[in-house]
């Protein structure tokens, strides 16, 4: 039952007292708590969502605040059905603990993994409970802040950067029940060998205090310049016109904009924003409008702005000798430049910047979502084989929730399995061609520990005109280089210009600031990717022919391992030279150069040498006849085999396990 005052008063009070008693017990044990919604999905499993605007980050140890939240949940996320039930959640890390969630749903092996760990390391489980699904949650103590990434199959870890439904809760779909003599105070540490496998957590930002926020506002100018006022009025009207579903992101956007202005009276701006907020929420009748909701946003935005200013101070005060900007040539000469890591094999190299452009409705966003969705679920996008899940941040400036839902349904993706895909629809970020935008984006990306970023599309993410080279340079300076320095790969999508042969729409500089630029076009069998004129990396491209399959029975769409066409001229000959020189298959470029010189052979062009090294590794054996397999743009890459090379032949069904 949902806790609302519209229900029978006796039932409401009894349920409220039950939940409040549980919350006080958890708080007494040293944990922060939060109200959460639970409801049943169509497949019988349970879904959960915090009933706080910022989720577990707003959790508290104040019983009176919790009581207010239980009586009137402050935020019900979109998608939570009306028949949900309220439960108490807690943040394990707030009490120096973690939870290992050993899942058994959908054939997950979490419980079996736990049993195997106990057999190997002894029985370290001293506090545990069962969930309604039958899975086991293990509470363990920890002196360090651990992240949510788990090294153990079927086991999810929650600590400071996550939350769990607390034992002691019950709903009409089942209960979370302690096992044996377990309690919140009986948890012990994990064995050292296991705790060392857990990664440290990224520290989430916290809202500023009321005092910090008040001081920040009071420090703003007492008068607003005319130009700042005009821009503020434009932003305020944009906020007023935001669709109901986008009002919370719009609130973050306008307040972030105001707090970053140097010539704006924030006292005046805050009052105007409160006025619009009250008008909007009262007129639509969505909920009782509260002025203090605006101040909640103000605290979060203040924290972000204070953090930015502190970073600027630290950069300005950094001693010159601490800025190591020059190359150490001796170390540079020793580096192994042969790349070996892919995010998506043959398509997206790890840690690199990439652009993907196409005409409208050609399928660029569909292909990207397929790839990142599979990576996030721990599956190779081409083969379906199990891999470690990859955290990816996707900033979508075009689609709506309905569009995204339709696309995920086309793929047969279960949204509950996409916890590693951090998807932002119509993100309320500053433009990415200004310093604030790049800083904000990096903060969001680092908060979730993403290894790669997607910006879809470039045009909507910047404020400058796309046909100006200055816009591209500004994006590169404030966002692109920021991500590359952090070792984070990024992919940005773009539209084709009026004349496709001239490349993406806008300035030619778009093809000069990334490592790889792919041109995509739809074919009868899928999509064709070409980076022959847009790759700085000799080992990427030049073309990929990707097969797109629609299951005739279910209608599920999938992509499978592509054929790469083309090796640089001379690749076969150079591969044979490497073989004759006795260069090992796993050798890097510097080792290969030394080996060739020792054998009296010339290393030749870097592009050809790098291609030859990779070609030999992919062949997988030395002494193989290379003739006819790597001699230019008409050769087929043996790394990506199909049932025949004719475009009309269907590859094996690699996704038969998909629903």
Describe this structure in words.
With 659 residues, the chain is of the alpha+beta class. The chain has four domains: 9-195, no CATH class; 210-315, no CATH class; 348-565, 3-Layer(aba) Sandwich (Rossmann fold); 571-619. Helices cover 34% and strands 17% of the residues. It contains 18 helices and 22 strands. The chain has helices at 9-28, 63-71, 110-121, 192-195, 210-218, 226-240, 247-259, 266-284, 291-317, 329-334, 364-376, 401-411, 435-447, 458-461, 469-485, 571-580, 589-598, 606-619, and strands at residues 32-40, 46-50, 85-91, 97-102, 128-130, 136-141, 155-158, 164-165, 170-171, 174-175, 177-178, 342-344, 348-349, 353-358, 392-396, 421-425, 452-456, 489-495, 516-522, 526-530, 543-550, 557-565. The strands form five sheets. It has a nine-stranded mixed beta sheet, sandwiched between helices. The protein has a five-stranded antiparallel beta sheet with strand order 7-4-6-5-11. Strands 2-1-3-8 form a four-stranded antiparallel beta sheet. Strand 1 (32-40) and strand 2 (46-50) form a beta hairpin. Helix 6 (226-240) runs antiparallel to helix 7, helix 7 packs across helix 9 and helix 13 runs parallel beside helix 15. The longest helix is centred in the middle third of the chain and has 27 residues, at 291-317. The chain is globular. The two termini are 32 Å apart.
């Amino acid at each position: 039952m949902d806790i609302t005052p519209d229900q029978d008063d006796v039932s409401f009070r009894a349920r409220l007292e039950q939940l409040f008693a549980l919350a006080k017990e958890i708080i007494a044990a040293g944990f922060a708590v939060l109200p959460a919604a639970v409801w049943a999905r169509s497949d019988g499993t349970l879904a959960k969502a915090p009933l706080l605007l910022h989720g577990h980050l707003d959790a508290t140890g104040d019983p009176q605040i919790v009581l207010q939240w239980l009586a009137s949940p402050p935020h019900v996320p979109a998608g939570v059905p009306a028949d949900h039930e309220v439960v108490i959640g807690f943040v394990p890390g707030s009490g120096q603990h973690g939870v290992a969630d050993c899942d058994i749903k959908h054939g997950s092996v979490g419980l079996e993994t736990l049993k195997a760990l106990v057999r190997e390391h002894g029985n370290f489980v001293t506090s545990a409970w069962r969930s309604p699904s039958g899975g086991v949650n293990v509470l363990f103590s920890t002196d360090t802040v651990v992240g949510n990434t788990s090294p153990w199959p079927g086991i999810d870890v929650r600590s400071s950067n996550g939350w769990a439904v607390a034992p002691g809760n019950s709903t009409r779909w089942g209960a979370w029940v302690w096992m044996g003599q377990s309690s919140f105070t009986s948890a012990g540490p994990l064995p050292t060998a296991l705790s060392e496998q857990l990664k440290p957590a990224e520290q989430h930002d916290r809202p500023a205090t009321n005092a910090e926020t008040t001081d920040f506002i009071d420090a703003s100018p007492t008068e607003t310049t005319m130009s700042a006022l005009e821009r503020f009025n434009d932003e305020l009207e944009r906020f007023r016109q935001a669709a109901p579903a986008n009002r919370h992101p719009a609130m973050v956007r306008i307040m972030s904009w105001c707090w970053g202005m140097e010539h704006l009276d924030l006292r005046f701006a805050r009052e105007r924003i409160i006025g619009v907020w009250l008008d909007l929420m009262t007129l639509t009748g969505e909920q009782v409008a509260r002025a203090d909701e605006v101040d909640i946003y103000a605290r979060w935005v203040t924290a972000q702005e204070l953090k930015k200013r502190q970073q600027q101070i630290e950069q300005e005060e950094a001693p010159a000798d601490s800025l190591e900007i020059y190359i150490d040539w001796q170390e540079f000469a020793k580096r192994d430049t042969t790349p070996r890591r892919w995010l998506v094999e043959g398509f997206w190299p790890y840690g690199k910047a990439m652009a993907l452009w196409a005409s409208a409705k050609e399928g660029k966003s569909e292909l990207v979502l397929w790839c990142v969705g599979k990576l996030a679920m721990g599956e190779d996008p081409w083969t379906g084989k199990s891999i470690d899940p990859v955290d990816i941040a996707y900033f979508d400036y075009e689609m709506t929730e309905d569009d995204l839902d339709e696309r995920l349904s086309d793929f047969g993706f279960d949204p509950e399995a996409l916890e590693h895909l951090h998807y932002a629809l119509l993100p309320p970020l500053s433009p990415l061609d200004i310093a604030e935008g790049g800083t904000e984006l990096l903060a969001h990306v680092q908060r979730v520990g993403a290894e790669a970023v997607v910006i879809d599309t470039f045009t909507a993410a910047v404020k400058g005109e796309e046909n100006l080279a200055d816009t591209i340079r500004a994006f590169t300076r404030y966002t692109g280089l920021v991500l590359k320095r952090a070792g984070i790969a990024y992919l940005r999508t773009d539209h084709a210009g009026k004349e496709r042969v001239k490349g993406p729409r806008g300035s030619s500089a778009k093809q000069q600031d990334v490592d790889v630029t792919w041109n995509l076009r739809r074919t009868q069998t899928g999509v064709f990717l070409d980076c022959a004129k847009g790759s700085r990396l000799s080992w990427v491209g030049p073309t990929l022919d990707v097969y797109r399959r629609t299951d005739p029975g279910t209608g599920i769409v999938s992509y499978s391992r592509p054929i790469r066409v083309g090796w640089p001229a001379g690749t076969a000959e150079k591969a044979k030279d490497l073989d004759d020189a006795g260069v090992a298959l796993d050798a890097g470029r510097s080792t290969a150069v030394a080996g060739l010189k020792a054998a009296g052979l010339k290393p030749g062009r870097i592009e050809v040498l790098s291609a030859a090294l990779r070609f030999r590794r992919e062949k997988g054996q030395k002494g193989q006849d290379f003739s006819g397999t790597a001699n230019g743009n008409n050769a087929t890459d043996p790394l990506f085999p199909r049932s025949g090379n004719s475009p009309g032949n269907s590859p094996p069904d690699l996704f038969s396990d998909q629903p």
